[in-house]
């Protein structure tokens, strides 16, 4: 093979810097835009999955588009970086105005086609520019004796820096809009440096940089103004590691939103119904533990039962500090009561380590719409709760529901949670309404409303909603018996840490808001899905895949792309599997999550660089070893939790780093072995990697992990890695 002449050292150094900048700005920008869209579209985690898919598709289209035309010019690259830098904060601002521009009424979900249009218009152009820039910069980089593998490693190293900046910025209090402006400045700086040989081209990047600096200085005002487009009575807003908190106040009513969705308001009776009924079920609630909900009035209501101690365990100190000045005088006095002890930390982790036991534990956790929230509705969590209850102690939590009609999907979702609960507590009770109140205890619960009304009189409680007549209605209406029959008839699988089936149903219920027939969907159990995979249809699909693999093997380009596609798919699903396992077992803190993602990206960069050093000397044994290592890593991920290895930060970090190393190594192997023209590999392999990751993100999050479970998914990935040997 005859290599082209090596480009000048200055050009080579500039190309490395450009590739690093593409990775940094792309990942930082993805975090910024996805957070904005999560708020604009009311916080459904399905939005994140769809958003990642749009970004990866846009990037794949960009890198394929970049293969067209002649060698990239300095002027064109500088202009694209400048546009990249200006586009990021502009798209973030447009996401804030999305509901206003679409004419969606406050509190209503935009129609799904409109949501998909918004996702595509905001994310595809950003992904397209990122992919286009990677393709152009990689073509310059490999013009001499440099490889696509090392270009991929440099871009991955930039992504490590972008991910670390996103995590560290939020941990230090940097607001999302400001992070977007800083990402834009980084891209503009790369454009300015890209035009160093032609000073006349530096005018546009310099002007764009000054504009972004001015916007950064005014970002607090811009942040408040843009948030106010959807919150006209805004009094406070802040981005925290757990989402955006916005508070509105009008005529004494405080309304709090988290990630755009209504969290609570202070003039309703929901806090009273939840806290009072749970406390009345307890003969003498001397020691109470409240997991969250301290800002919505639950502390005030619990103090009416005259407990000796109320321990309030809140997850997010910034959330509390932001809202505390806006609470009513009564709620401020309640939280400041000498009986109340405020503690910050992950509720599940803190409860597991608690040195004492309680008469009453109330969980005010959010709906199980994410992996983070689902941890508070699993059988393992309920076991932790029971271990911290005194004899005769009570546990209570809430589930948003429907008062008059439970669809099959809603019934299955609630049944999966209640089956997990009943596997731990001998006696459970569901009091239906627009929000269901769920009670559980190791000893018999009180079902006689007269007994509860008598306790209410003894404690001198005067409720706005909860009274003797309301208690009688709640415990004796026909709906309660009907709901119990519905739940008893449905054999739903228990919601567990390993198989978070409730999370999958939450996505189905979200879709049913736009497609009512989705409410009739009852998902197959993990065993049913596994039987389908291993049954006749699954075997037929396997035979079809093997036949397709045999055809692809005959074409070198198709074989390489298929190998990279499989590596991207396995890497993305394995990453999601390991992160979910760490999250549910260890109560992952935001800083831990940022570190773990950084370790995966670091492994990606190191794997690509390490394998890339071998150049064209790579043998097929190298590819086989990488796939074999991937299969062993997946199998170990399934076995370690069952061997008592736990989910420590060090162990999971090591697994994620290894997963990234093997994924990056496979990309490098496919791009190097017996390749004469590195430039020809850029578009097809990078696009295949992105498309495999896109499919892995959707399939892993929506289907494999919730329904099969983490261990079974890991074993399926181990088998998939072995099938990848066909493409080596």
How many domain modules? Answer: 3
Question: For the residues shown, what is the average pLDDT?
Answer: 84
Low-confidence stretches: 1-7
In CATH, the architecture of the largest domain is: 3-Layer(aba) Sandwich
CATH homology group of the largest domain: Vaccinia Virus protein VP39
Beta-strand residue percentage = 5-15%
Query: How are the strands of the biggest sheet laid out side by side?
Result: 7-6-5-8-9-11-10
Distance from N terminus to C terminus (CA atoms, Å) equals 22 Å
User: Can you tell me the overall shape?
Assistant: globular
Q: Tell me the name of the CATH class of the largest domain.
A: Alpha Beta
How does the major sheet shape up?
7 strands, mixed
Radius of gyration: 28 Å
Going by helix content, strand content and strand pairing, the class is alpha/beta
The beta-strand count equals: 11
Architecture overview:
This protein is of the alpha/beta class and 728 residues long. The protein folds into 3 domains: 230 residues, Growth Hormone, Chain: A (Up-down Bundle), CATH 1.20.1250; 240 residues, 3-Layer(aba) Sandwich (Rossmann fold); 205 residues, Growth Hormone, Chain: A (Up-down Bundle), CATH 1.20.1250. Helix content is 63%, strand content 10%. A hairpin with a 3-residue loop joins strand 10 and strand 11. It is globular and about 85 Å long.
In short:
The chain is of the alpha/beta class and 728 residues long. Helices cover 63% and strands 10% of the residues.
């Amino acid at each position: 093979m005859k290599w082209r002449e090596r480009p000048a050292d200055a050009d080579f150094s500039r190309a490395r810097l450009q590739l690093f900048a593409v990775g940094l700005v792309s990942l930082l920008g993805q975090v910024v835009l996805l957070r904005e869209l999560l708020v604009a579209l009311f916080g459904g985690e399905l939005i994140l999955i769809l958003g990642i898919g749009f970004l990866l598709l846009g990037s794949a289209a960009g890198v394929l588009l970049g293969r067209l035309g002649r060698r990239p010019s300095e002027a064109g690259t500088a202009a694209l970086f400048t546009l990249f830098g200006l586009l990021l904060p502009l798209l973030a601002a447009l996401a804030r105005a999305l509901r206003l521009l679409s004419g969606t009424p406050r509190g209503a979900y935009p129609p799904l086609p409109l949501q998909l249009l918004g996702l595509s218009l905001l994310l595809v152009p950003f992904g397209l520019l990122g992919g286009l820039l990677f393709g152009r910069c990689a073509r310059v980089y490999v013009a001499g004796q440099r490889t696509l593998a090392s270009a991929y490693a440099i871009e991955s190293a930039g992504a490590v820096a972008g991910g670390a900046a996103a995590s560290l910025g939020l941990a230090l209090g940097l607001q999302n809009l400001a992070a977007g402006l800083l990402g834009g400045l980084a891209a503009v700086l790369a454009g300015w440096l890209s035009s160093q040989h032609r000073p006349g081209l530096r005018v546009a990047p310099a002007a764009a940089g000054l504009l972004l600096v001015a916007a950064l200085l005014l970002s607090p005002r811009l942040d408040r103004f843009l948030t106010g487009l959807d919150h006209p009575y805004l009094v406070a807003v802040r981005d925290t590691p757990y989402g955006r908190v916005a508070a509105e106040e009008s005529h004494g009513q405080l309304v709090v939103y988290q990630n755009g969705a209504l969290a609570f308001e202070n003039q309703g009776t929901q806090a009273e119904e939840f806290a009072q009924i749970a406390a009345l079920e307890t003969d003498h609630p001397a020691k109470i533990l409240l997991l969250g909900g301290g800002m919505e009035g639950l502390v005030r209501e619990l103090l009416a039962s005259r407990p000796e101690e109320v321990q309030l365990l809140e997850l997010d100190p910034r959330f509390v500090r932001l809202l505390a000045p806006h609470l009513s005088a009564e709620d401020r006095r309640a939280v400041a009561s000498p009986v109340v002890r405020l503690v910050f930390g992950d509720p599940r982790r803190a409860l597991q380590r608690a040195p004492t036991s309680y008469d009453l534990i109330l969980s005010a956790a959010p709906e199980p719409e994410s992996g983070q929230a689902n941890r508070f509705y699993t059988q393992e969590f309920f076991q932790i709760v029971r271990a911290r209850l005194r004899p005769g102690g009570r546990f209570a939590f809430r589930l948003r529901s429907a008062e008059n009609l439970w669809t099959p999907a809603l019934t299955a979702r609630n049944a999966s949670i209640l089956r997990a609960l009943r596997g731990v507590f001998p006696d459970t009770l569901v009091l239906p309404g627009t929000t269901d109140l769920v009670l559980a205890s190791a000893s018999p619960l009180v079902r006689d409303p007269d007994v509860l009304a008598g306790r209410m009189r003894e404690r001198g409680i005067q409720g706005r909603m909860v009274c003797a007549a309301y208690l009688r209605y709640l415990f004796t209406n026909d709906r309660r018996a009907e709901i119990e029959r519905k739940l008893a008839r449905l054999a739903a699988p228990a919601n567990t840490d390993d198989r978070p089936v409730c999370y999958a149903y939450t996505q189905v219920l979200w879709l049913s808001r736009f497609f009512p027939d989705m409410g009739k969907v009852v998902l197959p159990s993990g065993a049913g899905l596994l039987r389908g995979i291993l049954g006749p249809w699954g075997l037929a699909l396997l035979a079809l895949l093997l036949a397709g693999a045999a055809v692809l093997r005959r074409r070198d380009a198709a074989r390489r792309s298929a190998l990279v596609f499989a590596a991207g798919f396995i890497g993305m699903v394995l990453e999601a599997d390991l992160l979910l396992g760490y999250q549910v077992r260890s109560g992952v803190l935001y800083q831990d999550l940022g570190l773990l993602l950084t370790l995966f990206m670091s492994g990606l960069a190191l794997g690509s660089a390490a394998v890339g050093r071998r150049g064209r000397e790579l043998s097929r044994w190298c590819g086989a070893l990488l796939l074999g290592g991937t299969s062993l890593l997946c199998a170990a991920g399934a076995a370690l939790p069952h061997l008592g290895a736990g989910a420590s930060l060090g162990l999971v970090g090591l697994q994620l780093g290894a997963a990234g190393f093997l994924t990056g190594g496979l990309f490098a192997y496919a791009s190097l072995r017996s390749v004469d023209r590195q430039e020809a590999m850029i578009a097809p392999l990078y696009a295949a990697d992105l498309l495999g990751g896109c499919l892995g993100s959707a399939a892993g999050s929506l289907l494999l992990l919730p329904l099969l479970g983490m261990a079974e998914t890991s074993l399926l990935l181990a088998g998939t890695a072995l099938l990848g040997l066909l493409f080596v």
